[in-house]
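Human
Can I borrow your eye for a moment on a structure tokenisation matter? Give me a protein, with the fold worked out from its sequence. Write it directly below this note and I will take it from there.

Assistant
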Amino acid sequence: MLKTITLILIMSSLRIGAKSFEKDLFYVNDTTFLDYINSCEFQNPELSSTARLKAGYQLDSCLNYGLKAGWVENIFLQKGNLPNGLLYTISEDGKIQTFTWAVPMERGEYKFFGQVLLRMRSKTRVQKLFDAGTFDDYDALNQKKWPGGLIYHIEAKHYRKNMYYLALTYRPHGVNPQMKIIEPLVLGHKNIYFGAPVFSVLNFNDKHFAKPPSRLILSFSPNISASIRNGNRNGEILIDRLAPMKSGTLANYLDYGPTLSTDILFFKKGKWLIKSSDK
């Protein structure tokens, strides 16, 4: 009976503008929390985009509360109960844990959500991410204006007492060019910063940079797949080299797809550099 009453209270709280849970719900148990998380059908194709979006916001509020309460690690990370469509990633040093998901909308678009659990020394911090919608190679962003997408890998490198984090993110689209993004993460005392001029790169994906970019964006056709993945040697990042498939027009990313070549992003003395695998 307590479980049923608690679940009703949770759902009522989340229906009101997807606000945070009420403080008096501290007695909710792990099973009830997992039941509610799995009831958020943000990917259900039989629902309207409005209903899916509402479910996405409900999951956002619920997960934020669960992370702060410490339930998520007990339920998901120890028992492997991740809901379908919720992508969990942890950095190599264990300090950054991300939870990201995408809600399918109209005309091939997606609404992106994210939560970050940070472990810095003896403190734990939870931060909600808010999708920026649009951004470019140079924008300096933070959790309030996040280059949204599905974070599927976080690389961690140490140099001169500093840690350099690099997130690999997938930003799908059904009509416009898709993106794979190589995104530096900088951990501040109160904020998470996205993007930093740590790339010693002059050209990428047929774009020329007059100054060091804050992120690398691989744009490509919505009809194909392209890969950015961590390699097996010294933390290298392997990147599919792309080119126009039919039109021959540079920077027409609706027509871009993989060639048979791969570029390699590698870390050296606090900077990320690119070399060709052909050499």
Residues 1-27 have pLDDT under 50 and may be disordered. Residues 112 and 174 are 14 Å apart (CA to CA). The chain has two domains: 1-85, 133-279.
